[in-house]
Amino acid sequence: MAYSAPAPPASPLATANATIGKFRWTICALVFFATTINYLDRAVISLLKPYLETEFHWNSGDYANIEIAFKLAYAVGMVGAGRIIDKLGTKLGYALSTALWSVAAMGHALVASTFGFGIARAFLGITEAGNFPAAIKTTAEWFPQRERALATGIFNSGSNVGAIVAPLSVPFIAEHYGWKWAFLITGALGFIWLVLWMMFYETPAKHARLSKAEFDYINADIPVGLPSEGVTEEKPKASWATLLGFKQTWAFVIGKFLTDPIWWFYLFWLPDFLGKQYGLKGTDIALPVAAVYVLSSIGSVGGGYLPLGFIKRGMPAFQARKTAMLVIAFCVFPIVFAQWLGGMNMWLAVLVIGIAAAAHQAWSANIFTTVSDMFPKRAVGSVTGIGGMAGGLGGIALTALVQKRMFVHFESIGQIDKAYYIMFFICGAAYLLAWVLMFTLVPRMEPIKLDDE
């Protein structure tokens, strides 16, 4: 083989990046599809709400109670799921969670009462809780710090794709085959993913084709003072009591508690909002709901790129994350005008809600990454689980204290639009408050070193 004049040698990390990229991004794609299925399964009920209201005679309070059952189980499951993921590892833990939530999703088709739906939603919530601790831990294992927000943004966009696929498919299935088949068909998708996961996934530490240079690339950005993990997982897992002793954990908890409920609101109440404010029914609701989540997908990936752009300009990773999250928090605020704009044209309301949903996903891509920025990989699943529990509890509080009482009250007096005015104001303020509290607690990068390190 003939060679031209020799070029300057590539750095080992650049060579490793080119070599390992296909593995790294294939794994990101697997996590993306798991997240897509996860959100498709949880979004189905919001689109079947008109059919289920007719069959089971629900009001807004009944639906809110079923939503609370899901969120409470999800919150409890998040703590346990993170712990289990850290103990079993990502391959087995993710597989177990996906198998169980797929069974739970399909099980909705067997329900014959409102109480039964509460039980089914609780089972779905506790099993779906494993997705994000496993996904964040997978990202921490396979991506260097500077790429994690982008990888997180990409896989997290699966939540939007799931929410897009749902309105495009679920009403159609329900109209032509009945609401039970909507649960059965969407739930079965998890088992297809499960086969692919077991075939293709392995941790870097156990990957047969992973060279030392490739391994070094993945661990290149571990902050000074933290161990280079991934070769083994032999160290004991940090206890919850230990993790809750760090202000970094509480910063993440506060951020999730205040902002996760907003996403729950979009996911479970957007179809209801479009139906009651603009009279949309059945398949008519598909396009505006899909439009919101298309924008969300753009926001999720864009949120991963935003801090990367700051980093490329020389800003430290944590400062880049902090700055990006402030920009994102301001992008949510225009949702307070959603009702006013919607009075002129429905699509203006859809647009501003879509921008806010996109900003939420950009926020998520970054807030999740703060965990792997600051904690050793063996604690990432547990901390993510604790934060996920806080997000679930925040969702319960919002539903029980605000949505359930407020929506039932204003609907009973024929003024449901006022309930949405209040909710959209809460949505607009939540992220700015979360940012202030988070970065008051942790104003600068402070990596955690556990006692046994």
Explained architecture:
By secondary structure, the chain is mainly alpha-helical. The chain is globular and about 65 Å long. The model is unreliable at 1-20 and 223-234 (pLDDT under 50). It contains 16 helices and no strands. It is 79% helix and 0% strand. It starts with 11 loop residues before the first helix and ends in a 12-residue tail after the last helix. This is MFS transporter.
- Which spans have pLDDT < 50 for at least 5 consecutive residues? 1-20, 223-234
Instruction: Bin the helical content.
Output: over 70%
Strand residue content: under 5%
Mean pLDDT score: 81
How would you sum up the global shape? globular
The sequence of SSEs as H and E is HHHHHHHHHHHHHHHH
Overall structural class, as computed from helix and strand content, comes to: mainly alpha
End-to-end distance: 50 Å
Radius of gyration based on Cα positions:
22 Å
Task: Give the tally of β-strands.
Answer: 0
Give the helix tally.
Answer: 16
The major pleated sheet works out as: none
SSE topology sketch:
Layout: H1 12-56, H2 60-88, H3 90-107, H4 114-128, H5 131-142, H6 145-177, H7 179-200, H8 212-218, H9 240-243, H10 247-278, H11 286-312, H12 317-332, H13 338-344, H14 346-374, H15 377-412, H16 416-441
